[in-house]
Predict the 3D structure of the following.
Amino acid sequence: MKNGTKILAGLGGLAALWGVSGYVVVRKAYDRVFSRSALLKYSTEMTFAEYEKLYPGKYTRRSVQFPSGGLMLQGYLYGEDRGKGLIVCSHGVFAGHESYIGGILNLVDRGYLVFGFDNTGSCESPGDSGKGLQQGPLDLSAALDYVESQPELAELPRFLFGHSWGGYSVCAVLKLGHKVDGVISISGFSEPVQVTAEMGDSQFGPISRLAYPMIGLENRRRFGENAGLSAIDGINGCDTPILIMHGAGDNYVRVDGAGIINHQDEITNPNVTFRFLDYPGRNGHNDIFLSEEAQIRRQELLDRLEEPVKEHHVKNYWDLPDEVQEEYFRDFDKSVTSQVNTELFDDIDRYLMGLLQNMKQKDDRPE
């Protein structure tokens, strides 16, 4: 997640001083923040095409499309020869499912069939806008509708995996009536208004709170009865086993603020497990997915890019001219910086294997 939500909260907070005109500014801020997103042209992370080139014949995927809100979203099924269970992935803001391709393929290596897709207005899916944070669980619900319509997928044990926006979505979607056998929520927030307010406070102080009613009104206009979709309500509305994981040093979705993990006293579902992630040098919002070496090499590149960022008076390296980025990435080994945190995925696999074992034991019990 970049700085879009902060912009939304900040503009809304300042605009609130203007009364009715403030609401107009909030609407424009939504349009700006949730405009189309795409994968970065130059990145430290490998794409699926690059994995195919590096490991010829090892990984395959099948393209699928499914409807959501009048649009046909783009998804892919990875590892269709695997039968351990189906994992449906929900991605973060300003990203797409390929932003997690290293983790997806790691799960394929472990025997899972993985369904990754791009939300409305993200990467390969159509839409002029991502609409808002509540669109995440709505698109995920549409993906589950597709799964339920396919006999070969519907019969598999079904798990959800999401990070950040996706971490919220995989919990909030539980309110929408789908059968789910287990959930992995990483760095998720409790509800859209709270995380927006938190970021507004951190950037502009208490003045941003004046915009909360306008943000709520815009959510209602965009999402109607789904404007209040909450991760906590989804968790408490079922008895589905859920693993809530959060980086101990996450300063984006704060562990002492909007993070689901900060709302443990509100959760009544007895099958929820909480885990803080505190890997050395990798306990933030995104770096928890990386191996130690990958994070070190990635940081070395980002440090080298600080000088051209200053020289060109831009905020981030992806705002640099293409020729500058190309020079720095030309001989860069993305196979190293794409290495995943195997400790994290070992933990996830153990959790899912435990769920699968419990499901098998229940199926083996005599009637």
Q: What stands out?
A: Strands lie at 61-68, 71-78, 86-90, 113-117, 158-163, 182-186, 242-247, 272-277. Residues 342-364 form the longest helix (23 residues).
